[in-house]
């Protein structure tokens, strides 16, 4: 069993619900970054991993794969278990290589636009095995956008959203994204190849309370869940309702609310006219 000190705490889970992602710098040691970088560059990513959709994640990588070593690191396993539970499944993976000078239209998109699930979520992991400068055009994300489902054609019209973040990091950084978070590739304006390994994982069962809940009664949790994203404007209450619904699912606390919005909303279904 994984030591609970490697799991996320409740504050971090609340941050994931509010922002739709978590970022961990230096979570992968530099030496392992170099080994995996070469492994990807040599075209070995898919070796032994073809057609494994729905396979238990622990059974995916060959024993000699540096990717297997990375995802067996206790800190990495702890984040995955906290978000998905101890028995998640492999969905797909892909080594993204962006050549020097390669141009993108910076089209924002969601990777699960047509997903009909209301509360369950997958995670997408972005692993950066090399230093990524701003000039290299690392992945751009829009924090808090994971509750906004927008048709892909319409979503492409959005540009330069206040609060958007472009990834600039050192080798060993990992980002764990809610599967609906708005994101896009960026143009590589440098003279270096940019590498990013993407992995999507599915929850196999309920995602309720798989993290370290020692701080679950921390009064600061609600403050995190009431965070206002810079782009929200006057629509914060919609986000608060969606966050409260997801928090109820994750914690099993069906009475949780933010500013009474969800409770008031549910009262209508109990009133007979």
Layout of helices and strands:
Blueprint: H1 10-19, E1 21-24, H2 30-41, H3 66-71, H4 74-84, E2 89-98, E3 123-128, E4 140-141, H5 152-155, E5 165-166, E6 173-178, E7 183-184, E8 194-202, H6 220-225, H7 236-251, H8 261-267
Antiparallel strand pairs: 1-6, 2-8, 3-6, 3-8, 4-5, 4-7
Written account of the structure:
With about 270 residues, the chain is of the alpha+beta class. The protein has two domains: about 5-200, q2cbj1_9rhob like domain (Jelly Rolls), CATH 2.60.120; about 220-270, no CATH class. The protein contains eight helices and eight strands. It has helices at about 10-20, 30-40, 65-70, 75-85, 150-155, 220-225, 235-250, 260-265, and strands at about 20-25, 90-100, 125-130, 140, 165, 175-180, 185, 195-200. The model has no long low-confidence stretch (mean pLDDT about 90).
For the residues shown, what is the average pLDDT? 91
Query: CATH first level of the largest domain: which class?
Result: Mainly Beta
Main β sheet profile: 5 strands, antiparallel
Q: Separation of termini?
A: 53 Å
Under CATH, the homologous superfamily of the largest domain reads q2cbj1_9rhob like domain
Q: Mind telling me which CATH architecture of the largest domain this is? A: Sandwich
- Runs in which pLDDT lies below 50 for 5 or more consecutive residues are none
Order of helices and strands: HEHHHEEEHEEEEHHH
How many β-strands, per DSSP? 8
* Shape descriptor: globular
Strand order of the largest sheet: 1-6-3-8-2
């Amino acid at each position: 069993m994984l030591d609970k000190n490697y799991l996320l705490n409740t504050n971090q889970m609340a941050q994931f619900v509010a922002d739709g992602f978590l970022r961990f710098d230096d979570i992968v040691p530099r030496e392992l970054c170099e080994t995996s970088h070469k492994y990807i560059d040599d075209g070995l990513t898919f070796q032994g991993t073809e057609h494994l959709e729905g396979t238990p994640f622990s059974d995916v990588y060959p024993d000699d794969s540096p990717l297997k070593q990375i995802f067996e690191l206790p800190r990495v396993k702890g984040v995955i278990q906290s978000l998905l539970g101890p028995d998640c499944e492999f969905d797909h993976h892909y080594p993204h290589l962006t050549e020097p000078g390669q141009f993108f239209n910076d089209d924002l998109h969601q990777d699960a636009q047509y997903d009909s699930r209301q509360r369950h979520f997958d995670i997408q992991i972005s692993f950066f095995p090399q230093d990524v400068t701003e000039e290299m055009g690392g992945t751009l994300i829009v924090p808090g956008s994971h509750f906004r489902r927008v048709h892909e054609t319409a979503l492409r019209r959005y540009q330069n959203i206040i609060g958007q973040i472009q990834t600039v990091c050192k080798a060993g950084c990992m980002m764990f994204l809610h599967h609906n978070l708005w994101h896009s590739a960026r143009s590589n304006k440098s003279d270096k190849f940019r590498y990013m390994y993407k992995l999507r994982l599915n929850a196999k069962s309920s995602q309720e309370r798989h993290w370290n809940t020692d701080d679950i009664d921390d009064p600061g949790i609600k403050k995190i869940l009431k965070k206002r994203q810079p782009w929200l404007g006057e629509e914060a209450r919609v986000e608060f309702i969606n966050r409260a619904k997801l928090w109820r699912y994750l914690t099993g606390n069906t009475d949780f609310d933010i500013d009474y919005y969800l409770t008031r909303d549910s009262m209508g279904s109990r009133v007979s006219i």
